[in-house]
Amino acid sequence: MAQLIAEGPLALFLDFDGTLVEIAPSPGDIDVPEGLADRLRGLRDRLDGRLALVSGRALDDLEMHLGPCELCRAGSHGASRLLHDGSRLGEAPEGLPDDAVAELRAYAEKHDLYYETKSHGGALHFRKSPEKREATLAFARNFAEGRELCVTSGKGVAEIVRHGATKEAAVEAFMAIEPFTGTTPVFIGDDVTDEDGFAGAIEFGGFGVAVGDRISDKARYRLASVTAVHNWLELE
Ligand SMILES: O=P(O)(O)OC[C@H]1O[C@H](O[C@H]2O[C@H](CO)[C@@H](O)[C@H](O)[C@H]2O)[C@H](O)[C@@H](O)[C@@H]1O
Prior knowledge:
Its EC number is 3.1.3.12. This protein is 32% helix and 21% strand.
């Protein structure tokens, strides 16, 4: 980090689950290291404000776990973006219609999955029953077809999202404004949707860093674990 910062102005984009916090059996079970928000604010200051969290979670969910964070942040896979002072960057995300949510909930209940409401879509979690992966993804794809929605898959989850809700779009939105613009972006993430974030970083002359074992198509570097991320970012 110190070497990169010394080489030129750097912007950091950080995924949340699986990157800053360990994956847990269900979304509400994560263990957020004490003082994480404080340490991220320290890193933000070290980067003169050029740090943004980019998560699949809805922003209110992210803040429920982190506390008021005063960081630039994108939630809902990039669809909802706030600046560090809480002002909005771009449009607010649009939720799914009530009948669509009811149908997704009913499917989750019937198949004993956890349904997570998102401000831009919904997520069917099958982490506790990995054998349900293919059937859940097939249902989600079929559901999205014809509704102008699309499906993203992640670790133990099938998510129904609106088109354009990508981490690449989030990187592009932040890189278009001060203090990010003209700097070199680095995106760190562990999951499939982070590939879009890596693409966004590459677009602006930067690079991606993959976390964990997942084979990445686009990342230039790898960090082995959440602990390695904390060490590299000097968040300890
Ligand atoms: O982009 P991220 O910040 O990494 O968010 C991706 C998804 O994270 C959450 O689900 C994942 O983490 C859960 C807790 O560790 C885990 O139980 C689940 O299996 C994972 O898919 C979150 O619930 C989703 O909304 C995010 O999209």
